[in-house]
Amino acid sequence: MELTAYNQFSLFNDLQPEWNDLLSRSASNRIFSTWEWQSTWWQSYEPGSLWVITCRDSDGKLIGLAPWFIENNAEKGRIICSIGCREVTDYLDIIADQAHTEAVLNSLTAYLREHRDQFDHIELCNIPEDSISYQNFPKILENNGFTIRLTHEDVCPIIRFTGNWEDFLSSLDKKDRHELRRKIRRAEGVGNDMQWYIVGAEHNLETEMERFLEMMAASSPDKTRFLSDPNNVKFFKSVSAVMHAKGWLQLIFLTFNGKHAAAYLNFDYNKQILVYNSGLLQSEFGQLSPGIVLLSLDIKHAIETGHTVFDFLQGNEVYKYRMGGVDTHVYNLEADLSD
User: Is residue 323 included in any domain, yes or no?
Assistant: First the structure.
């Protein structure tokens, strides 16, 4: 197996033809590991020096990819991190062809030992519980002289669809089901003229994203602070345009009498809907529960269009569980050479 480390931005152009093909052959096929997400994130933030490691078989075929960079930290020194760590990316993983997972991880570990002079510490974030970075990599690191520490980062509640809309409603707690139906009826009440739409080719994405960001900032002080960072705004605008071009963006709005009341910036990838962020004008429309109503419309649409999973991503907000979310977990992995 041939391993190569890349440290120039040109790597994204070099690897673009192979990146997503490898991802489709891996157990890590999530939108946050796509070439589009990773390259856009790096262009927006650039928090260190790229250190992306590729693994190729004897025929030169790409069978493994560690999308990493090295961050210089005053206390910990040179830290290997995953591209995307940490705030705006929910899942991250090493990408390996499923037929060669163990070989890729063993080769990466050997490469780390051989190049220990280039880093001081490893911190990989937002690792899903079913990922190879959680299930396989820690034991291989331990077997090769690394001291590892796994810590729980957060939960990601998800809904797995097994039937139609009525089946979904029946799966909810009786009280939650009754409350959801009551909110939908109230929102659909006379005089409200409730409408909703998904941004498509007939819309101006730039205009709709500006609207979304204004609504997002109005949702909470935390979101206002987040969007006060120009790098975060740059990333949201850039990644939404890239995802829209790929057909992976689901930007949805709810209106009452022509006025926008709620919005979700979601991703539509691999038969899954991922709820990435939201905007709510709670002070003006709170009595109509616009966030929950729009969420229910989106869930119904996801079921009707053949999606298998509705992923609320990181956070344990109560509404996610009232809508049927069941926890999955993400972890952080730290590692040091102990010899």
Answer: no
Distance CA 273, CA 60 (A): 35
CA-to-CA distance for 263 and 245, rounded, in angstroms?
Answer: 20
Give the per-residue pLDDT at 164. Answer: 97
Confidence of residue 339 (pLDDT cuts 50, 70, 90): low
Task: Name, in order, each residue with C-beta under 8 angstroms of 67's C-beta and a sequence gap of 6 or more.
Answer: 33, 38, 52, 82, 83, 84, 92, 94, 95
CATH number for 209: 3.40.630.30
Do residues 97 and 199 share a domain? no
User: Cβ(42)–Cβ(238) under 8 Å?
Assistant: no
CB-neighbour burial class of residue 229 (10 A; exposed 0-12, middle 13-18, buried 19+)? exposed
89 in the same domain as 61: yes
**Is the sign of the CA dihedral 275, 277, 283, 285 positive or negative?**
negative
Q: Do residue 148 and residue 31 come from a single domain? A: yes
Contact 78, 118 (CB under 8 A): yes
Has residue 78 got a pLDDT over 90?
yes
pLDDT of the residue at 280 = 95
Residue 333 forms part of a structural domain: yes
Measured over the CA atoms of residue 123, residue 79, residue 239 and residue 260, the dihedral's sign is: positive
Is 219 in the same domain as 125? no
Q: What domain range is 246 assigned to?
A: 162-307
Q: What is the pTM of this model?
A: 0.96
Is 327 in contact with 163 (CB distance < 8 Å)? no
Is residue 202 included in any domain, yes or no? yes
Q: Is 208 exposed, middle or buried (0-12, 13-18, 19+ CB in 10 A)?
A: buried
